[in-house]
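Listing S7. Sequence submitted for prediction.
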Amino acid sequence: MYTRLNVENFKACKDFYQNVLGLTTKFEDDMDEYVEFDTGSVLITLFNREKLTDFVTRDDNLSYNPHSARVVLSFKVTDMEAATRHLRTHNIEILNPPTNYPDRGIVSTCFRDPDGNLIEFEEIVDVMVT
């Protein structure tokens, strides 16, 4: 199983997932502008949205809202402070400061990839039981 993001800016997104998030490339086809990244448990693939019509019949109503949160990629991190510092060194805007959710046992923060897809970093912490 994998999650595919149909992206508008393939090269910027590919660079972001490879060099900012540090995902391992499993398969790459620059001619078709398709790449698979291995996260260890799930594949994340990127595909140039313009080429989607070669594979899927296009409906005039098909649209992509860059601020949609229909899909959120969520990654576990072991050190939220280091992870957010890393994002800032790459000039990635943090949408919300790392927030502790003691009832869920996580600290969470969100940001977007170059195409506007929402991404969440989660650090697992102790669940507070009341």
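Caption to Listing S7: primary sequence and predicted structure tokens for the chain studied. The mean pLDDT is 83. The longest strand covers residues 106-112.
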